[in-house]
Design goal:
single chain; 117 residues; alpha+beta; Alpha-Beta Plaits; four-stranded antiparallel sheet; globular
Amino acid sequence: MLYGCLRPEAATGVGSVLQMGRDMHWVAIFDNSQAMPEVRAKYEPDHFEYLRAHRTEILLAGGLREGPGHPFGGGLWILAVSSKERAVELVESDPYFLHSRRNYKILQWGKRFRTSR
């Protein structure tokens, strides 16, 4: 459950990260290509380093699968960037994309959590 991971009480600091004052939040949803298991095995360290280097813009990232024990069939990022063009730039510069050209969709995220109640 993605929304469960975003509750401030579930992950310390995440609620405040989502309120960084950026004017747009985007979600990137990835479909894995047939080549992704090989790409993941070869380029995972580069991918993780890329995510770390862009952690102020790529707030959350992770693989998606049917359930425990199932292979990853895609991925999801939540981004805080100034434009859709910047989101595309980040996606298309990621080592996973560079070596697989996996399909993706970028959608604007219109809801944000408030840190105070």
